[in-house]
Amino acid sequence: MRRDIVHVGSGQLTYEIRAIVEVANKLSSMGVEIIWENIGDPMAKGEKLPQWIKEIISELVNEDIFYGYVATAGVPETRRFLADLVNKRGGYKVSPDDILFFNGLGDAVSKIFGFLKREARVIGPSPAYSTHSSAEAAHSGYEHLTYTLDPDNNWMPDLDEMEKKIKYNDSIAGILVINPDNPTGAVYPREYLETIVDIARRYDLFVIADEIYANIVYDPSETCQLCDVIEEVPGISMRGISKEYPWPGARCGWIEVYNQDTHPMFARYVKTIRDAKMLEVCSTSLPQYSIPRVMGDPRYENHLKTRAKMFADRAKEAFDILSGYKGITVLPAHGAFYMTVLFDDDVLNDYQKLEIQNDKARDFIENIVRGVEVDKRFVYYLLGAKGICVVPLTGFCCKRKGFRITLLETDDDKRRATWEQIGCAIKEYLASA
Q1: Where are the alpha helices (DSSP H) in 250-404?
Q2: What is the C-alpha to C-alpha distance for residues 268 and 274, in angstroms, rounded to an integer?
Q3: Are 384 and 283 spatial neighbours (Cβ–Cβ below 8 Å)?
Q4: In CATH terms, are 10-47+301-430 and 65-295 the same topology?
Q5: 57, 290 in Cβ contact below 8 A?
Q6: Which region, left, alpha or beta, applies to residue 259 given φ > 0 means left and ψ of -120 to 50 means alpha?
Q7: pLDDT score for 134
Q8: Rounded to an integer, what distance in angstroms lies between the CA atom of residue 273 and that of residue 18?
Q9: What is the pTM of this model?
Q10: In angstroms, rounded to a whole number, what is the distance separating the alpha carbons of residues 337 and 246?
Q11: CATH 1.10.620.20 assigned to 65-295
Q12: pLDDT score, position 135
């Protein structure tokens, strides 16, 4: 073509969580039975939406009005309801005008990073959730800027490193926080969030908090939400129903914007995001209408507590099984529904392998492991030998070696057997070379 039509950030668009599916599907076609531990879809792992929530949605389905367009920013009734929820916390006060709906948080992430000035960077955690890191890197055309989550400190952010990077890189305009964290399951204590907001205050930055798992926390007394600590600093909280009802197929998420009225440049930035959404007319209507009815139902609080307890029990179960194996470090998750298994330094190499009985699968795996990261090599062998599909930690914009598992499997025997198979595979793999 006479002109280069490829976006400068095209090479940064990587999503290992789904990329591993292509490998797994090829193995499946060769006769390998796959256990999917790569993606955070509760429904795919057997969780059922509570009947009372289904009944509320069924009632909405029978009303013609819920099939039409809604306001670009979102259903007014729903935005008022969500604003009231924030205001009841007693921290920052929002109005319905501070809330904007999207077709899932993936849509929100795309616009939040896509409509930043290219030279304005957002520093985020490492390990990083791929949707954020890829979108931020793609908008700039450079690798995503990161601060370290320290496994020697329960995956807490290295705040000294964060501040030093911000101090000496004036292209950084914002700080991204994921709390509870994906992929580590870490939950940040209030004092960490207060310090991050203070760093943003002192260096004149804004804060983005992905809080999609805010109501899946096993010890809520230790953490808080961005609205509780943001004070006068500009910020954006990202929320949704995909993990919470759970209803991932609804593609329904929203942002809560803080302090746009007192920061003119930030207000113009938010207006750009709103205007971009206006070009799409609106987000999907039915899930929005369900929110006041579901979240406002007296049964919802117990629903959240029950699910948090369920994931807390599974996190303990996974920790108890996997922590008994040498060569890895496993930290208990405190929120969301993921855990990260970290390989000890220097225990992996380019010669280790697992025995794969299926000849076609063995030939395929031995061909694709050449030159890949050593944790990805393990993940491929685990997939070929055991059919267990996990995600390598280096796929999360991270130099440390490990992999992520989920806590989603509802079949108790299958879940425990999967973790035990992973543990045995680690032992066999590390002993192979």
Answers
A1: 264-278, 285-295, 300-322, 359-368, 374-386
A2: 10
A3: no
A4: no
A5: yes
A6: left
A7: 86
A8: 27
A9: 0.94
A10: 12
A11: no
A12: 87
